[in-house]
């Protein structure tokens, strides 16, 4: 780096084009004993680098030296420029008053082009402080001057900033116009850091407009760009956390925010960013059901924002603090007043969160019995129900539903809930990934519960059934978006499979595998990230649930749908042209008993545990009392379909005495059962049998089953590789897979069946054009599912049902491999005579030996669907 004036000044734009190169160049300049003007530039460059990517204390030291050197050089323009940079650093350090004073001096010292740059920086600081109107005024003054000077870089920065301020004020269309104009300018420059910032900003715009997949894709792209530059971006962490929370991934958002706080503290970074990270961590903790962590994070954020004189941000932190205190069980008149004051301040700021605060005030007032106060606050919140992004409209309809309930209008409650869930339905179908669709339903849980209570009060069992179905297993209403042509996803899946297979082989040999496990987790994140980027291409489900259609299709079958109201199980017995309601036990007691049963079945999978059989059978009787109650006496002699809530998915229903000898199937929803019942089998009737490695019996049933079906496709040994297995499964009439199953509670869509080349995971099944019409999974834990969202399930079985599978047989517990063989042979014997899966499984249970191991094996398997 030469000491020429032009070459030294070129270091300043380099900070956001090649940050590390600029830092090295500035240090070389200082090594040459430069004149004050050049030294001022070099110290300013180092100060900017430390301010944005390093230690803020070091940044302030360099920027003050840059200011003093500019004064020694008697360059008013140079001094003004440095004062603008110093002002930003002081505000980020929490020294707001000193920072604003530096800007005042900078605006006075600078002229023309330089003053416009100082005004842009002050506009940025006003945005940081939450003074949006002041930010717009400064950037409005700066942009024409920057354009006149043909300063492309600073004009693009100013447009990006103005767009970001518009977003904070809820003006998405204006923001989009400015982002588009800025992006055209960035394309003409080499400012790589600024380009990454532009991509990040477009991700924020996509998020504000409700397009979560696009937001995740753009933010991940920005993260890749920052990584190539070797520069951290805490603002990106904050924005990713916001999108993750909107997607229902609150625990992931909390982990990311806490990790970013740790990095920021480690480098002595900006206190302004720390306060913002604490706020987002508080929101994530509250949404994740951890109110005490939320209170701690939010209280610290409030203190930091107050010290930084950032009223806009402090007010948002106070909102989260009140929400967390309410979630922790606190209710008081003081909290009503605090929430109302926060709502007024947010409304004065023009903040989109204002309706949330009014809804919160109304909720607390209702819980205290303050009807007049509640109506006032809820009426304000309800104004947002017709305009704005989905979350704002949902907030408005929730407020309207609470108003109607307080007024005693069940019809008004149901109408508001219907409208609110319609908004969420439309939003949910923009999401391509089944995981995001499932988690998004949590936002409608309150509306669904309000509607169920109101329907029971005014409409009886039929209406309760309708509302129970309205928000149950909605992720199964349409197939997830499949990306079969995405080569990057295919590469990631192949690499994941190879690493997972190597890790499993190493574990079996007793070798440590930390490096392989780290790489496997990295590839899992990569696969998951790409699937979350997919935008939904399915229209909303216009085929609403029809009780009359269900009753007509049932015939002699009885469908038992279990709804949960205020913690108690309500049994809706459908059949003989009517719906009857019975009240059963408490959900928490049923869940606890189901866990005891699962433990018993695990013990019975091993010989020598026969003494546990009476204990398990007694637990089955208690489960029947808790889950069916008096309805058990009215089931009639025919087949039974059980539709449990997601939290009861692990119940082995065949263990219940009144269901033990019946033709029994389970479905995530009545709507799902209807779709399965009306699904036609594929032409051709292909049968596919797959035998994976490592089974204790070697999948001994497969050769005998193959003899029963003539000439089926049999994949075993090296032929049982994932690409070939998927190819054969696509569109098959019947598939039988004998392979070790693993369930991933932490990441259910990575639950897997072990093939010769590694795991066959749920994401693989989602790439099928049509999954097999019937599929039998003969190994352990293949029916285990994760309960997410409002009432959704994720796992192997639920991945198959929306893709054309009408019936599944799978196990919800560990089973004895040897005892599985006769059960599967008996099952296929029944299927060969034309029985359904449920009929064949009933007969197979009766045909196996009566010892405890075989009985437990039969109970562990369940028929899902209607084929």
From TrEMBL:
Tree of life domain: Bacteria
Name the record gives this protein: CHAT domain-containing protein
All residue ranges annotated as the CHAT domain in the record: 618-865
Organism (species): Streptomyces spinoverrucosus
One Pfam family per UniProt: CHAT
Record-linked SMART domains: TPR
